[in-house]
Amino acid sequence: MEYKERTFDKDDILKRYPIVEEINEYISILEKSNFDSSISIALNAKWGSGKTFFVSMWRNYLENNNIRTVYYNAWENDDSDSAILPLLYRIISLIKDVENENFIDYAKKFLKTLTVETTKFGLKNLLGINSEIEKIIEKGLDDLSSTELSNIFKEYDQYYGDRKALEENLREMVPEDGKLWIFIDDLDRCKPEFSIATLECIKHFFNIRDIIYIFSIDIEQLGVVVSKVYGKEIESNSYLKRFFDIIYQIPDADYIIYIKNKIENMNITAEIKALIQCQTLAKLFRHFHCSLRDINLSLTHLEIFMIRNKENILQQKISYEALKIYYYFIVIKDKYNINYLDIIHGNYTLEENENSYRLPISKFYIYNEQIRKLLGQISDGRAMLYTKDIIKQFGLFEDDNIDTFKQHMETYLS
Question: The pTM is what?
């Protein structure tokens, strides 16, 4: 679905529009103190929690109210040698059609101002010592000639002037009596150096009044990125606060509301839908730390499972307890596939067993007493043996062509 098709009116399943109103209040307060600066808001949530979907609804809402926006996916651009050029391109192309002959001239104006080829004081040296400082260290300040020292400051003066000119040109991107909203997504998924350089270049080059930055991030993962660049000694949270005026924690999703909506839109009959237990699924998703992305995948596989087995489900009148077992294996198959394969092959012991070469299963996977009993039955390789009695005991689908628990799960959850 294209972002322009996503709206709060029809797609805001998780009722997140109030976040927009709350952030607008923060921005109003910040504008009073950040009179001549941009404003940066970090939307913090784990990967797969629906940040990008939320941002697409927000952008559409703004644009429908004639507010200019830019969307920049940092991860899609981290193969670039420069952190500033892809972002600059996105801003320029917002105003000028890239197929327009004037676009190249317009781009040159920015790139010339930026002096991209000059690295002595440019972006590549934001994070470390540049060649001019190295010259001072190597020769010693007293040994530098007046001309050499003068040249260093002349070059810096040129660089500083170019930066100011760039800022003035970028102000043209902001509508009169309006704001430019720039949404930056997936920064925490980029190569560490690119993530940090992007933050730094925004701070140094794009810190312009009436530009509002909305960063969709996982602050914990971005903190790991900071540690990789600067070492574990740095206090990553303090470092990141340099770049964000507000770090807004997106509330956890209401799984029940989300699941019910997804089930309602499944391509299955009402009779089959009625058999799906939302509460059970929600408990499973919480237990196994599933993101919205994980949930979408598992519910898609559940829909396929229900469609393929609808006759079996209705004719055998399979119990809720049996369906819970299939739910369990669908979720761990999608979320923890390697462990799932070990489990359905019985490649573990339920308890410590010095006579077994297999490792004990993590208690994390012993979800409830029903699952404990089942895992005990198929442990130590017994999932690979004749297990029709186990399938019958737990009320699973009976099939004369299937002999083992491993084969059963591979057939029904394929």
Answer: 0.79
Q: pLDDT-derived band of residue 122, with 50, 70 and 90 as boundaries?
A: very low
How far is the C-alpha of 286 from the C-alpha of 66, rounded, in Å? 40
Comparison of pLDDT for 173 and 365, the residue scoring more: 365
Four-CA torsion 74, 79, 85, 87, nearest 10 degrees: -10
pLDDT per residue as tens digits for the range 235-253? 888 888 889 999 999 998 8
Of the candidates 227, 224, 203, the residue with the CA atom closest to the CA atom of residue 213: 203
The pair of three-digit structure tokens given for residue 33, joined into one six-digit string: 């103190």
CA distances from 319 to 276, 313, 327, 397 (A): 11, 9, 13, 10
Lowest mean pLDDT among 77-91, 145-159, 318-332, 383-397: 145-159
Strands (E), 234-273: 246-249
Q: What's the rounded Cα separation, in Å, for the pair 10 and 352?
A: 52
CA–CA gap between residue 35 and residue 37 (Å, rounded): 6
Residues 6+ away with beta carbon under 8 Å from 69:
59, 62, 63, 180, 181, 182, 183
Q: What are the two backbone dihedrals, phi and then psi, of residue 116, each rounded to the nearest 5 degrees?
A: -55, -35
Tokens 């997106």 sit on residue: 250
Confidence of residue 167 (pLDDT cuts 50, 70, 90): confident
- Using DSSP's 3-state secondary structure scheme, residue 39 falls into strand
Task: Identify whether the C-beta of residue 379 lies closer than 8 Å to the C-beta of residue 388.
Answer: no
CA distance linking residue 397 with residue 243, whole number of Å: 56
Q: Smallest Cα–Cα separation from 352: which of 374, 373, 324, 380?
A: 380
The string over 281-315, giving b where at least 16 C-beta atoms fall within 10 Å of a residue's C-beta and e elsewhere, is bbbbbeebebbbbbbbbbbebbbbbbeebeeebee
DSSP 97-155: -TTSHHHHHHHHHHHHHHTTT--SSSGGGTTS--HHHHHHHHH-GGGS-HHHHHHHHHH
Residue 257 near residue 13 (C-beta atoms within 8 A): yes
Kindly list the strands in the beta sheet with 39-44, ordered across the sheet, starting from the edge strand earlier in the chain: 68-73, 180-185, 211-217, 39-44, 246-249
Q: Report d(CA 367, CA 381) in Å as an integer.
A: 20
